[in-house]
Amino acid sequence: MSTPVAPTSDDLTEGTAGRLIAAGKVAGTAVYGPDDVQIGTVEDVMITKATGQVAYAVLEFGGFLGMGARHVAVPWQVLTYSRRLGGFVLPNLTLDRLEAAPSYDAEAADPWSGADRYWGPSPA
User: Fold this and answer.
1) How many independent structural domains does the chain possess?
2) pLDDT value of residue 67
């Protein structure tokens, strides 16, 4: 009798075609504006510990060759996934509004307070 082998993280994050996606596959995914022009990428996702729901996507945009890029936390529910584009779309969010959002600061005592004030509390 063979011993079952636990799946590796590569096994769990292999495909992205289904209705679910591993958090490790979300990082680096392109983010597009309502005009289908890429405006950035998903840097990370933030999950509410108590519910397990994704609360925010931390987007990276702007800058050049990694210099001067900004990180902004946006509520997960404002993103939709486009199979056609192979990335997430902010269908009702202008680049101006995204640029006006407070930068995400992981070093702050409460890094989500600025995002919550700007977007409203995350429902997750």
Assistant:
1) 1
2) 74
